[in-house]
User: Which sequence fits this backbone?
């Protein structure tokens, strides 16, 4: 997208991709309810919306901008990958693409392949207080990021 994102003021444009930051609207849910929220928002707006992805060819310019925005907001947020179907092998839910365990956005010692941690959260880690990926239990409520695909 260039310029304004569709869907009124719900979405924010970053590097050509459009994101909904639930923290701007006071929304927190577990991982599955966050995904359902994104998809329902998309249905209301007649758009294809799901939890945000990183590493998608169409959004490669926006990846670092998204991670910077998550860092600025200083929250843990759900993103759209899970290893529920195959422990240790994360897949993006919207595209079905694999998320490599060697991706540079993973935090130190992540993913740690704990079988109780099947959903992808991005949160602040380390002395530089930057957002990184972590595998995490799917049940706690967190803010989340939706993306128009």
Assistant:
């Amino acid at each position: 997208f260039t310029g304004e994102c569709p869907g009124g003021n719900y979405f924010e444009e970053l590097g050509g991709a459009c994101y909904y930051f639930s923290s701007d609207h006071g929304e927190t849910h577990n991982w599955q309810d966050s995904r359902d929220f994104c998809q329902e928002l998309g249905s209301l707006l007649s758009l294809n919306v799901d939890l945000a992805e990183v590493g998608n060819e169409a959004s490669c310019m926006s990846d670092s901008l998204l991670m910077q925005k998550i860092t600025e907001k200083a929250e843990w947020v759900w993103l759209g990958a899970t290893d529920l179907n195959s422990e240790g092998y994360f897949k993006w839910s919207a595209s079905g693409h694999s998320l490599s365990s060697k991706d540079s956005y993973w935090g130190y010692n992540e993913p740690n392949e704990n079988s109780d941690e099947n959903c992808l959260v991005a949160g602040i880690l380390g002395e530089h207080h930057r957002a990184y990926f972590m595998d995490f239990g799917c049940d706690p409520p967190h803010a989340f990021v939706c993306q128009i695909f």
Remarks:
- The helical segments are 31-45, 60-73.
- The radius of gyration is 14 Å.
- The chain has a mean pLDDT of 92.
- DSSP finds two helices and nine strands in the chain.
